[in-house]
């Protein structure tokens, strides 16, 4: 790629802190040295957010097409979608059909841009699932597409890119985890630990690392049960499903290691033993990532850091995201931390360029 990649950034639910952290992230002038960012959303809400965060100096430039963007520090290019009737009357920090619809339309538009090759990667701010699904139900489907429910961003991307095999990856610098299952009950998650799905996720994880420039990825595969089942004493999923999947992956030439005890594999990954960890369910991967990425300052009684990047793997386009929610309680106060979004943009840039993000100490 001869030019800096174009990154399409959704504003998220406008009732949340997405617009605010977008303004804060794009106020980092050095970001423009690495990429060409363009926001997909309602320019009126970005202008309002600039006021919330005390950055009225940031000029919002409305574009009808990506080709009309200026990509200049101090200017926030917004591919304008007229989604909020009156920002002065729009309720910040509350679930609403109008906000849910706006968030959804931004996501659908940025996918369209990526599929058409107008942006090189996409980066999403948080949406509120309740608001989005209320909007879809009220409209009787997404603009006559017929879809009245999505579990979240991942399912929207899979649907509109016609992708059948995909998974979520969370990353904090070079600590990366992928999931066999995500948004389902723990009881159902255990039932989803099957050889075919575990193998599929190992393959996706291996390919993702290769795409990021890691020549020989080391893929650790976590067990499901305590101590990996202790040879069947605490469960047989490792014997019957996980180990056969690892053996099949190794037969394909993938350096898959495991099953690894879940209580130690993440410490080993932090120590550089592995490039990515395959987790069996949502919290098995989310808890360690958020433990290292979300840092609360006891004395200041505020979040010192809210880091972490959410990536959807298996898609024909690049999608990264913040690893936090809409922050309704913080919306409108101008205090939200933009670091997760900055990291997500950087991850999108590096994936577009085919290089893997590393620890700060290794850059």
Automatic annotation (TrEMBL):
<comment type="similarity">
    <text>Belongs to the PdxA family. PdxA2 subfamily.</text>
</comment>
<dbReference type="Pfam" id="PF04166">
    <property type="entry name" value="PdxA"/>
</dbReference>
<comment type="subunit">
    <text>Homodimer.</text>
</comment>
<protein>
    <submittedName>
        <fullName>4-hydroxythreonine-4-phosphate dehydrogenase PdxA</fullName>
        <ecNumber>1.1.1.262</ecNumber>
    </submittedName>
</protein>
<dbReference type="GO" id="GO:0050570">
    <property type="term" value="F:4-hydroxythreonine-4-phosphate dehydrogenase activity"/>
</dbReference>
<keyword id="KW-0560">Oxidoreductase</keyword>
<keyword id="KW-0479">Metal-binding</keyword>
<keyword id="KW-0520">NAD</keyword>
<dbReference type="InterPro" id="IPR005255">
    <property type="entry name" value="PdxA_fam"/>
</dbReference>
């Amino acid at each position: 790629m001869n030019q800096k990649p174009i990154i399409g950034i959704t504003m998220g639910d406008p009732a949340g802190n997405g617009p605010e952290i977008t303004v804060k992230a794009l106020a980092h002038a050095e970001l423009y040295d690495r990429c060409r960012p363009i926001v997909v959303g309602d320019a009126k809400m970005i202008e309002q957010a600039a006021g919330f965060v005390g950055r009225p100096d940031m000029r919002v430039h409305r574009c009808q097409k990506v080709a009309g963007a200026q990509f200049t520090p101090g200017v926030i290019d917004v591919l304008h979608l007229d989604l909020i009737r009156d920002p002065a009357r729009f309720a910040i920090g509350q679930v609403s059909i109008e906000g849910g619809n706006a968030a959804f339309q931004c996501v659908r538009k940025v996918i369209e841009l990526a599929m058409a090759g107008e942006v090189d990667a996409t980066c999403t701010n948080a949406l509120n699932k309740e608001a989005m699904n209320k909007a879809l139900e009220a409209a009787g489907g997404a603009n006559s597409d017929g879809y009245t429910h999505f579990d979240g961003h991942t399912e929207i991307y899979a649907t509109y890119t016609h992708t059948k095999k995909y998974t979520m990856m969370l990353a904090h610098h070079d600590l990366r985890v992928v999931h066999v299952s995500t948004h389902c009950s723990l009881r159902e998650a255990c039932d989803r630990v099957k050889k075919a799905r575990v193998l599929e996720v190992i393959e996706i994880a291996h390919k993702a690392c290769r795409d990021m420039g890691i020549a020989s990825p080391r893929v650790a595969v976590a067990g499901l049960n305590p101590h990996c089942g202790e040879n069947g004493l605490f469960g047989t999923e490792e014997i019957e499903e996980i180990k056969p999947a690892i053996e099949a992956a190794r037969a394909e030439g993938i350096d898959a290691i495991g099953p690894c005890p879940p209580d130690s594999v993440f410490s080993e990954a932090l120590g550089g033993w592995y490039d990515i960890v395959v987790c069996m369910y949502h919290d098995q991967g989310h808890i360690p990532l958020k433990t290292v990425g979300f840092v609360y300052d006891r004395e200041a009684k505020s979040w010192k850091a809210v880091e972490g990047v959410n990536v959807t793997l298996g898609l024909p386009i690049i999608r990264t995201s913040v690893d936090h929610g809409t922050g309704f309680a913080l919306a409108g106060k101008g205090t939200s931390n933009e670091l997760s979004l900055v990291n997500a943009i950087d991850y999108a840039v590096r994936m577009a360029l085919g290089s893997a993000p590393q620890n700060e100490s290794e850059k």
